[in-house]
Backbone:
């Protein structure tokens, strides 16, 4: 009776299977992971090169030349892992969101997927955090390769993992705010004005406690969430270096994540739905 | 019940949208319903509120008032479910540039929870049908506007939506791509897909839509089939006649034509078209001979030869071109008109029926042209 054997779907054809939002969420996450996986070398080069050079110049060159004490690498390495996690997370949400919302509009297909729009925002944070996690973990072999050895202790692993995950999340959540709040014509300026100060006020290259001779800077660094990631990393890997109490780091990071995620989702919704 | 095509797929009641910081409503109390399997056109100039209406129905724009539903699902109350029922082909290319064409289709279906085997089958069938099979593994960057749009239509069909929204589907396309889109829309309709399309092109609306809603300033001014919309304009159907007078005073002829039944009004028009030999605006440049030569010669016979010499107004009129505004059907009036002309010993050289277009409807509704 049918006129032709049309195999393509029609509205009269068999009904769709209704997707749960959870399934849609996983499909959207899978898309991002798939794309990253396919260009993994490029991704790693992109995120590892900067910390690699920081580690090489500050940890290897300066110490070998005698401008820095040999023990400095023990201060620096946990800070660089923290920095990598934080910055990769931040860039992995901020850059794609600015581009998607302002230029390519590619994200529209996912905003029209059957899941709450806020979940698309959460997916971006989860995905960026996974990227950040990968980048930070890659710093472990990179550290061994450049420095010869890295500070590591088994009893610090639980705290290391906790701080690492929180560091990835806090960077991604702040990146969501940047990516949705920054107008497209200001991207270059904003990234220079925000990213560079964040890089150097995050206690990655110095322990926060040692700043008591520089009280104003100590206050400034206390405002940067990265400081708590760096300090938490030191607490996990090099407890002999003076550091903040781990619970302070964890608490500040958790609060920052919750607040910035709430703000980020609000801003995301405002960009996504008129 | 499945509705049997009786229940509307899209229902909109008193829909209102005011954007943040806007002084007027972008959509201002719009109501309509779209039947299953119908091609529904929203026609209006840019800024009329068409895209906003589509935006609300596709959950990308939050309504300020009223209701909108798709297959009974209120788009404002349950946007997640509604998104599974609609598909959108936007004005701009928003294909995923990181993925191939085929992957664009596959991931779209995955977002919508279509099982893996089924999405592969659908993707291959649609790629084949849309003539994209050979380019399935290309990235969207390499596609022209028309091709990208084809891909977006295919993508939209991957989750078998209840209604497909086409936002200005041919804006910015070359004529060939435009015709291709028109053919696709007809095919989709033949397949039973319900389509809502927006356009500022009256030809497109008349060509494709079963019913057309005319929008302006956020309001729906009229809604009907293109034929019914144009029929509403009394005196808008015209009959244009060209006559070689053979000495008959033109005023007599005009008076008698105007007295015919169903003729509401008659006016003499400057003969610019094919049967005309007179300069278009009665201006000094371009004499009759030249106009005739440029027009490729009149279709009707003209025993006296093309008029020549000084401008039209200066010589005794040999030819008359008149437009009759009708209340009734134009074809039925051809014979009486011919009889009147023959009675005056004049010669009918051309007859043209002018049907009103949607453009005329728009002008009648708003007092200004569409573009």
Residues:
């Amino acid at each position: 009776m049918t006129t032709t054997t049309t195999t393509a779907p029609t509205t009269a054809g068999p009904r769709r299977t209704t997707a749960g939002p959870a399934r849609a969420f996983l499909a959207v996450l899978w898309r991002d992971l798939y794309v990253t996986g396919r260009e993994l070398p490029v991704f790693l080069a992109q995120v590892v090169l900067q910390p690699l050079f920081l580690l090489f110049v500050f940890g290897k060159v300066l110490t070998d030349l005698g401008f820095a004490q040999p023990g400095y690498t023990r201060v620096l390495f946990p800070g660089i892992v923290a920095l990598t996690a934080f910055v990769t997370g931040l860039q992995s949400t901020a850059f794609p969101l600015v581009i998607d919302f302002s230029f390519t509009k590619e994200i529209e297909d996912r905003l029209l997927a059957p899941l709450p729009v806020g979940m698309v925002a959460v997916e971006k944070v989860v995905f960026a955090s996974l990227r950040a996690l990968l980048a930070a973990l890659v710093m472990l072999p990179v550290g061994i390769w450049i420095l010869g050895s890295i500070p590591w202790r088994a009893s610090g692993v639980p705290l290391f993992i906790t701080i690492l995950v929180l560091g990835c999340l806090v960077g991604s959540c702040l990146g969501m705010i940047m990516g949705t709040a920054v107008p497209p014509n200001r991207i270059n300026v904003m990234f220079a004005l925000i990213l560079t100060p964040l890089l150097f006020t995050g206690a990655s290259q110095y322990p926060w406690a040692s700043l008591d001779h520089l009280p104003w800077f100590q206050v400034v660094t206390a405002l940067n969430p990265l400081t708590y990631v760096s300090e938490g990393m030191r607490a996990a890997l090099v407890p002999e270096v003076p550091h903040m109490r781990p619970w302070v780091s964890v608490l500040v990071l958790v609060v920052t994540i919750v607040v910035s995620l709430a703000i980020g989702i609000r801003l995301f919704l405002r960009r996504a739905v008129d | 019940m499945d509705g049997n095509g009786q229940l509307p797929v899209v229902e909109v009641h008193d829909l209102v949208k005011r954007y943040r910081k806007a002084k007027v409503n972008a959509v201002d109390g719009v109501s309509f319903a779209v039947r299953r399997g119908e091609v529904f056109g929203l026609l209006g100039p840019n800024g009329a509120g068409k895209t906003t209406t589509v935006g609300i129905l596709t959950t990308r724009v939050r309504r300020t008032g009223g209701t909108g539903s798709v297959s009974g699902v209120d788009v404002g109350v349950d946007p997640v479910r509604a998104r599974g029922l609609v598909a959108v082909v936007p004005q701009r290319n928003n294909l995923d540039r990181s993925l191939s064409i085929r992957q664009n289709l596959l991931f779209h279906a995955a977002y919508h929870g279509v099982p893996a085997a089924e999405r592969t089958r659908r993707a291959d069938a649609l790629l084949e049908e849309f003539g994209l099979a050979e380019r399935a593994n290309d990235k969207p960057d390499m596609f022209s506007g028309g091709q990208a749009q084809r891909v977006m239509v295919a993508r939209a069909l991957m989750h078998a939506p209840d209604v497909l929204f086409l936002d200005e589907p041919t804006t910015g396309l070359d004529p060939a791509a435009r015709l291709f889109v028109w053919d696709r829309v007809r095919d989709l309709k033949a397949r039973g897909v319900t389509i809502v399309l927006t356009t500022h092109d009256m030809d497109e609306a008349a060509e494709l839509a079963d019913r057309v809603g005319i929008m302006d300033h956020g309001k729906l001014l009229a809604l009907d089939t293109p034929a019914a919309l144009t029929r509403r304009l009394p005196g808008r159907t015209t009959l244009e006649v060209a006559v070689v007078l053979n000495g008959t005073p033109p005023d007599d002829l005009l008076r008698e034509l105007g007295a015919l039944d169903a003729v509401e009004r008659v006016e003499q028009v400057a003969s610019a078209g094919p049967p005309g030999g007179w300069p278009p605006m009665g201006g000094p440049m371009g004499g009759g001979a030249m106009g005739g030569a440029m027009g490729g010669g009149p279709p009707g016979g003209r025993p006296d030869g093309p008029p020549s010499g000084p401008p039209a107004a200066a010589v005794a009129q040999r030819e008359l071109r008149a437009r009759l505004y009708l209340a009734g059907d134009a074809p039925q009036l051809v014979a009486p008109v011919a009889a009147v002309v023959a009675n005056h010993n004049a010669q009918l050289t051309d007859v043209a029926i002018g049907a009103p277009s949607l453009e005329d409807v728009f002008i009648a509704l708003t007092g200004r042209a569409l573009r």
